[in-house]
Fold this sequence. Notes:
Layout: H1 3-48, H2 64-67, H3 72-75, E1 80-86, E2 90-91, E3 94-100, E4 104-108, E5 113-133, E6 140-155
Antiparallel strand pairs: 1-3, 2-5, 4-5, 5-6
Family: Belongs to the IL-17 family.
Keywords: Secreted, Signal
GO molecular function: cytokine activity
Amino acid sequence: MHHSDRRMWKTSEMELKNNASKYLVVCCVSMLLGLTIAKGEVGEKERCEDILTIPSDYYKTPSEESEGNGNINTRSLSPWTWKPITVKNRIPPTIWEAKCSSMYCVYPTNSSQAVGYQQNSVPIYQQVMVLHSSATRKCYNVAFLSVAVGCTCAWARTS
């Protein structure tokens, strides 16, 4: 082999190595991108495969009268009112939360209702499961909210 042949061979070898490394980088990036896209699609399918069927009458609640409690929120010694809280893209979209009518409990007397300053009216909380739709609106994510469901009397805190 001549000296010029060796130089040409080394130049060709270097070009081949440079091109091979570029080709290898392109292949690796393509594979990683393909795996990332496939993983995202599979992961999304796995999260959304479960089906939750909501009955058409889900939002209808039995009347308080039929449940036997009647207007318990106004008859309570710690009365409350109901406040609707609506959030779009949530199931259920509207949750009714109790708001205590007074800081203190009310005690009936012979002539009128007396306020009991020794006991406070405090909300009772319940964890409620809700579903929030994802950005794609194809899936729902489960969340738990702390919701006031009524009020009760409790001894006033002393410091």
